[in-house]
Amino acid sequence: MKTSNVLVLILVLLYMDASTEWPTHTVCKEDNLEIHYKSCDPQQDFAFSIDRCSDVTTHTFNIRGAMILRHNIKELYLKVDLIINGKTVLTYSETLCEPGHSKLVFCGKKKGEHLYYEGPVTLGIKEIPQGDYTIAARLTNEDHVTVACADFTVKNYLDYY
After folding, report:
1. In what order do the strands lie in the sheet with 146-156?
2. What does pTM read for this prediction?
3. Where does residue 5 fall: left (phi above 0), alpha (psi -120 to 50 degrees), or beta otherwise?
4. Are 143 and 123 in contact (CB under 8 A)?
5. Residue 115: is it exposed, middle or buried by C-beta count within 10 angstroms (0-12/13-18/19+)?
6. What's the DSSP call for residue 106?
7. How far apart (Å, rounded) are the C-alpha atoms in residues 72 and 145?
């Protein structure tokens, strides 16, 4: 009996180590809008949520995100790609943390610290584009190491008129 338990435990541990994909998480799902995400970092998943799906259609909405840092954040860079039918059609990048100029409260956090953000986010656009598409977001630090990475799948059939 004990040998079979040990064998099952070893198989579970081997399977977990061999798995390189995280599950797809649902951010929100309403009649005409669905948003899902999956971490594209094979070593770490993270938590992300919004208050209500319909809030995304406003200019500013509240989010919550949490993770444990695997790398220090002295400098933090954001790169976002809009991907339609497998092709990148738009790229946006921004420096979020740099010495003497930090836009976020968690700039300067160290490896192993818990990162948690709850608050407003402004997209800078008036309407979420309609259709099915992917938004690939990547945060990297001063060493060009991935701090967090996710692919967001959006299905938007809202009528803005």
Report:
1. 25-29, 33-39, 146-156, 131-141, 76-84, 87-98, 101-102
2. 0.79
3. alpha
4. no
5. middle
6. T
7. 10
